[in-house]
Amino acid sequence: MFIVRWILGRIILLLNFVFAPKKRQRPPEQQDVIDQQTQSLALYQYAACPFCVKVRREMRRQNLNINLVDAKQESNKALLTAEGGKLQVPCLRIEQDGQTQWLYESKAITSYLNERFV
Ligand SMILES: N[C@@H](CCC(=O)N[C@@H](CS)C(=O)NCC(=O)O)C(=O)O
Predict the structure, then answer these.
(1) Residue 69, SS3 per DSSP
(2) Pocket of ligand 1 (CB under 6 A)
(3) Which of 8, 51, 102, 111 measures 20 to 30 Å from 93, CA to CA?
(4) Residue ID of nearest Cα to ligand 1 atom 18
């Protein structure tokens, strides 16, 4: 089972690479503002998880430079579980007005990004 999942994961990564979405282009000063805003975001994710790939593709489409955190690493996994509430990826960590929110579900994350940055 592990090997099947591993192979599927590599296929997903290959297809994602070959069919990478086109990055949205903004004027540099506008992109700088967006880059500042995305510094308060972090995506907890696995490299080959299809739901994480979906979110990363949307980030690329929108040209959002969001820090990627590998949730397979023990310390990251522990933080996600303790503060987010469960071990599930993708999860977007949002820091705003001194508060931290952990947003689960790929659909909810892409909707949030589209509403906030489009
Ligand atoms: N409905 C969720 C599904 C997310 C999901 O199933 N993620 C898997 C990885 S692909 C997960 O976090 N599994 C828990 C684990 O690996 O421990 C979404 O769309 O984000």
Answers:
(1) strand
(2) 46, 49, 51, 87-90, 105-107
(3) 8
(4) 105
Domains, in order of start, for the chain: 2-117 (3.40.30.10)
Distance in Å, CA 29 to ligand 1 centroid: 36
30 Cα–ligand 1 center, Å: 33
**Ligand 1 atom, smallest distance to 49 CA:** 10
Tens-digit pLDDT profile for the chain (118 aa)? 899 999 999 999 999 999 999 999 999 999 999 999 999 999 999 999 999 999 999 999 999 999 999 999 999 999 999 999 999 999 999 999 999 999 999 999 999 999 999 7
Q: Look up residue 114 and give its two tokens.
A: 């589209």
